[in-house]
Write a structure and sequence with these properties.
The protein is of the alpha/beta class. The protein has 2 domains: about 10-240, Aspartate Aminotransferase, domain 2, CATH 3.40.640.10; about 245-360, Alpha-Beta Complex (Aspartate Aminotransferase, domain 1), CATH 3.90.1150.10. It has 14 helices and 15 strands. It has a 7-stranded mixed β-sheet with strand order 2-10-9-6-5-3-4, sandwiched between helices. Strand 7 (about 165) and strand 8 (about 170) form a beta hairpin. Helix 2 runs antiparallel to helix 9, helix 3 runs parallel beside helix 9 (about 230-240) and helix 10 (about 245-260) runs parallel beside helix 14. It binds pyridoxal-5'-phosphate.
Length: about 375
Amino acid sequence: MFFASYPFAQFQAHKKEINDSISKTLKSGNYVLGDQVKDFEHSFSKFCNVKYSVGVNSGTDAILLSLKALNIGSGDEVITVSHTALATLSAIISSGAKPVIVDLEKDFLTIDPHKISRAITKKTRAIIPVHIYGQVCDMNKIMKIARENKLYVIEDCAQAVGAEYFGKKVGSIGHVGAFSFYPTKNLGAIGDGGMVTTNNKQIANKISRSRQFGWDKNRSTLEHGQSSRLDELQASILNVKLKYLELENKKRINLAKLYRSSINNPEFQFIKSREGCKHVYHLFVLKTKKRDLYLNKLKKEGIYCGIHYALPAHKHNGYQKFCKFKNSNLSITNSICNQVITLPMYPELKSREVKKISQIINSLL
Ligand SMILES: Cc1ncc(COP(=O)(O)O)c(C=O)c1O
């Protein structure tokens, strides 16, 4: 049996080191914002090539706290996409701001920079490009638009830790990067976790305070905050796994290459990988017009594919009324959700398994 992602295999791959690291933390008696979180923040900054990393409770909170740190909230607009996890929109809505939904680049399924320019109003404060599936957005164009219009850029890096845009790591390009360590992610915890990266000391300090009620070092407060700390045990696991991330991303890239060279069924189309950039294949997604038929056929063969995403976030009942959008401007977003199918992709997947899955896909009529 194969699944689209398989976090248990990740645990097994590093079982001894993870267990040892958890045990060390348990013995330390220091369970909240201790050495493990500090070490992880330090290593993560190095990994992303940024000055500051602040560990928080989840990727959703990483976006929410970033918006709050930039004083974005009620009355403001934030431009993003809705071909993403609900989390992206959830965070914007929780901040009080209005998500403004724009369409995707057809080839890459990332935010279309041309559509961003057209959506800017007097209320626009920020852009949240989502590096979907592990593929980086067209950041040069996005940063240029942001500069010209004095907007902040919060990169949603939840699916793309380690991805690069012409040599620059995601999370180091915009004003802020927001990461998730949800167990299925390329760098997954065994529970929830998130990180904010930035080169701006003020933003980093503000988030360090707001993840703990607004406390400064002396536990006095200037502004209100919330409780959103990266858990010490999760950090102890992430400290182990970060060491293997580059290698594991490389394995994903090689498996993706193999899928690309092995699948030749004309009913399936690949999503292009941006030239000069490093795609880290959090998910390996194909397009097909017969998605639901093939999903069932593959399930019968023991291949449990995923759908990312079956419904654009702005069409969810609980979200629609908070968003600004024009469906006639979202033709790619609204059509792609019926075509995408996520194949098994995780570093422990074997080449022969990818070949077998590809063969089965090639035999589908
Ligand atoms: C694109 C995207 N943004 C944000 C998030 C939020 O992360 P978390 O689940 O850690 O809150 C996720 C993960 O689910 C995601 O895939």
